[in-house]
Task: structure prediction
Amino acid sequence: MSNDSTYMHWLRERILNEGVYLGNGILKVDAFMNHQVDPLLMQGIGYEFARRFRGQHPTKILTAETSGIAPALAAGMMLQVPVVFARKTKPLTLKDEPYQASAPSHTKGGVVTLMVAHEFLSPNDRALIIDDFLASALTIRALAEIVRQSGATLVGIGAVIEKAFEGGRGALRDLNTQVESLAVIERFDGDKIVFAE
Amino acid sequence: MSNDSTYMHWLRERILNEGVYLGNGILKVDAFMNHQVDPLLMQGIGYEFARRFRGQHPTKILTAETSGIAPALAAGMMLQVPVVFARKTKPLTLKDEPYQASAPSHTKGGVVTLMVAHEFLSPNDRALIIDDFLASALTIRALAEIVRQSGATLVGIGAVIEKAFEGGRGALRDLNTQVESLAVIERFDGDKIVFAE
Result:
């Protein structure tokens, strides 16, 4: 706790009190992040991401629609840098060939292709990836692949909740970047949530 | 301008400078709202929604994924009320039969069904609907239908950009609620954007 903020203690409390374990490693946090969003908690999350990544001087935050938008925007407000959310379906407004990378969807099934228009990520950018969950890290790797395609520099990866038992952190090691999770779940013991440490 | 804030002047400037008219009434504002999000502008938008709707004492903000999330969250931060975003695909975490209503998609084609879990909208709630665009108002009417199903009271509807020529405001009249748009586009003159007044 010594290195940790009051906000992050609060985040763990919210996960314990309102998170619902659905089995198969799926944690439902619809009450404050994935369906209903608590704006004050998000501000705390943004504050904490800003504290941990400010030294990397990001110029863009990259996330994936839908559930990454709230924490990414909160971080963007604190760091005062633009937030780009990768699209999963190509809207009519997205012309030309975007950067794209695919990842299987954990909670929806199937494979999703993430797309980012060229104009919003360039070789001059220092990109910070923010997402709601770090689990298998396949979505985050797809975002990192988009950063690579754009020529931008990846300066960090932040997740609100890490499910450590899915091995995502190891899967990101070759990216040689700072990885931060605000709450780390070590395992589920029955339907009980056990945090790391 | 007398009744208007500096933020909203700035919003119109951003629309003029960065909005791209694609024809068929479709305005692309991917540079600051629908693909890349400017957090400072969103804070101004949230401030302005809060100013206009605070007197209605909303207890919940309701929006639709994806593009409504940023302005709705910004408003939620200013008003300190939770934000619920209606889902367009049913994630594994959404059990039971949600409230639902359908609307045709302007920019993606086809029909989307908006879903909200029962636990996040109740007869005790005073619901404020916030979305990125007020055009034909079909998405907003679907959100209002979800409010009706829940038994909550609809206390207002706010849109960042209104395309007045699509008649959405008239289509909302029977809901008898306060409707506010932060920038009102009267028409497109060639590829030139003409604001109301």
